[in-house]
């Protein structure tokens, strides 16, 4: 009975007790650093009848390193518990609510971008206490812009340094793998994925594929497989970033610098640059994350970034533009991961940005195809179609924020950074598997969009010197060698044309002069390309090989110069040129046959690095030297027997002499090839 009575009394007391409501105003504001917030931080206390309660003590206290409490106050009998009354800067203030039940205080924001936090302790009349936490974002716009740009610049520098160094270390091997790609589309995909994973640049892989197609090393279907694989390889960077080793950024840079600065071999130095680049990537991520972190408390900032989730087209367009501008899909993915890690964007919005990034990365291949052949343009179009089609269907699949695709990505990890990296990887892998059976169809579609045209059949030879390959010196040197073979072929045609002009009168002199001018232009373009290569970081073998290539280019140009000498010798004779039988005439004919054979062997040596062909050139050059000496002796004997001789014999002697000079230049080329890139020939003294 006594227990029951006690319970009734307790219940009655609770029902009779006054209930109070505490309201907050002015929370989650933004403002410039070192300025007063537009609205005060305010507490309002009301009773159960919604009537204001006056005289309630409210203690405001700064709860962060940034910001200070300041005048004006709202309320009764303010008491400064901590602070400087003279300067008007306080850290703790006690205020009683006024007749409206309100107590408020102003907040002067701190001097750096940060969350300024104030805690309000409300001591209610019933003896209970309620705590309210205010948060206000102090924004240093200049610092935010500089730090984001600086962090992004460091990130891009790290990407560039790591990519270039990896290409130096592994570029030759990756190039060889790509060259050996067969018509098997699966092997092409694996080669593209491997190359991109190693050199850390899907753009570089796509540019190389376009260049190889343009040079005829691989066909369109092979290139499509390589590009599909490149999209898988580029996801490695995001996975590395997601391991959260950013706090090791500076030690990683230090280790890489030590390897680069103190190593004795270029290979270890290159690996040092790779590690420095990786450390810079992490350092850039850290800088951007540190400045973006506080912004997640700003409702305006959150609404801006969250609009990416509600407007897929805006997010995809943003990802496309960013990647197109900075020319690095990995950088865009890294920036997206930073936004997700800072809580500024959810997984759905991040996924849309990644899809836009995949579209933006195709811009590089499109740029590399400008001025290239139609097959190269078709390859670039295949890259674009592959990524655009993939982005469209995946964008539709993730419109439901709680759908299967996004839930599956969420199930892989609870870490936002890892979720974005996994979304990037899973999309590209799935898209690649989907398109592998469709490679022939995709190739035909590109040929339909950019149809092949019947090219004019002429003897013109256009050099395809791809500046996009200069960042990969091994590939650029390959490009230079391939185009040098074209120059050798054209120089050979110039000489054979000059020989025909000398003996038969056709082609006409003007044609030979025009062809020699074309060889001069080729020499100019090849030399300029080689000079650009000299400005890149070259390994020891490349540094030794490049001067020999330039010397070979100059020898080929001098060969065509002597073709002009031959037709000029012919032009000194007016009328028809009937060769009279004799030792001098026989020597001239034989010299023409030897030079023609030497030219063919030289072209074979340059194209296939055929040592037997190079040795044949040296053997023929010995015969040509003896033949030239015999021709001089024959001409001297003719002068001795017959006195002053006519111009025909002098023309024959000059012809044999020019053939011998051509032979000297071809010998220089053969000696350099036999020497494995070390120059063994004589200087150009002719």
Please describe what this structure looks like.
With about 675 residues, this protein is an alpha+beta fold. The chain has three domains: about 120 residues, Immunoglobulins (Immunoglobulin-like), CATH 2.60.40; about 300 residues, no CATH class; about 210 residues, Up-down Bundle (Methane Monooxygenase Hydroxylase, Chain G, domain 1). About 65% of the residues lie in helices and about 10% in strands. Helix 9 packs across helix 12 and helix 18 packs antiparallel against helix 21. The chain starts with a helix and ends in a 12-residue tail after the last helix. The N terminus and C terminus are likely disordered.
Q: Which spans have pLDDT < 50 for at least 5 consecutive residues?
A: 1-17, 454-459, 678-686
Which percent range fits the helix content?
Answer: 55-70%
Radius of gyration: 39 Å
The tally of domains stands at 3
| Average pLDDT number | 81
- Strand arrangement in the largest pleated sheet: 2-10-9-4-7-6
- Secondary structure tally: strands: 10
Span between termini: 130 Å
What is the general shape? elongated
What is the percentage of strand-forming residues? 5-15%
User: Which quaternary structure do these chains form?
Assistant: single chain
Strand-pairing-aware structural class: alpha+beta
Count the helices. How many? 23
Biggest beta-sheet profile: 6 strands, mixed
List the main descriptive attributes of the protein structure presented here.
alpha+beta; four-stranded antiparallel sheet; 65% helix; 686 residues; 3 domains; Methane Monooxygenase Hydroxylase, Chain G, domain 1; Immunoglobulin-like; disordered N terminus; six-stranded mixed sheet
